[in-house]
Amino acid sequence: MKKYKIAFIGAGNVATHLSNELKKCGHEMVQVYSRTEESAKQLADSLHTTFTTSTETITKEADIYIVALKDSAVDQVLSKIGFGDKLLVHCSGSLPMSVLSQYAKNYGVFYPLQTFSKNRKVDFKQIPIFVEASSSENLNILEELANELSESVTILNSEKRKSLHIAAVFACNFANHCYAMAAKYLETKDLQFEILRPLIMETAQKVQELHPKDAQTGPAIRFDENIIKSHLSELKEMSDLQELYNSNSKSIFEHHQEKQ
């Protein structure tokens, strides 16, 4: 497969993992851009390449520019760069591909569906990657790149990708927030979050075999008012947890009243 010169616009979690994986596959990382020197230099050093904090000095030598910025920063940064006929790609779950059309002739999406933290290793072979592009030629390039990294590559349009991202927020971000709230509560009782780890693991493993609706347990599914009221009373000094507990309990019960 052809090896590309790739520049990263962004140096956060996604950029860190994706750039290092692409480098392992033999592609050349020619530059990292970030608005903060610390993050740009840290990633560039790990890739043995150069960095910049100025859009004016972003390299013209890359074949592919991969944008891994928060959605609200994309327009602000890209509007200051000229890409010509180079391939411009973003990694966002929610941004439509069309946002790139005003900045480049060739553009697309390269979306790995996973939660990334800089210092935690992930197995890219197991990460689903979703691609979309402005032409068949560009799509072929992105599919080839994705297939180098992952065993699960799918062409997906912007509308379905956004739906997938919404579902991922529920499955990952909201679930993790519940872990954080559980830890917050346990700390007030001088108990360690580690106690919950086996429960969390079994909950995650169970939905590998069962539909989540079939895996649901607990007082809310049967709306056990005595337990729920007792728990809500216990949480009266922590209004944020009390509100979350109450709304989730209602949602669980109502969901299980619906017909399959």
UniProtKB/TrEMBL annotation:
Taxonomic superkingdom: Bacteria
Signal peptide: none
InterPro entries in alphabetical order: 6-PGluconate_DH-like_C_sf, DUF2520, NAD(P)-bd_dom_sf, P5C_Rdtase_cat_N, TM1727-like_C_sf
Chain segments annotated as coiled-coil in the UniProt record: none
Domain DUF2520: 127-251
Domain Pyrroline-5-carboxylate reductase catalytic N-terminal: 5-91
Gene3D superfamilies assigned: NAD(P)-binding Rossmann-like Domain, ProC-like, C-terminal domain
SUPFAM superfamilies listed in its UniProt record: 6-phosphogluconate dehydrogenase C-terminal domain-like (SSF48179), NAD(P)-binding Rossmann-fold domains (SSF51735)
Protein known as: NADP oxidoreductase
Protein source organism: Draconibacterium sediminis
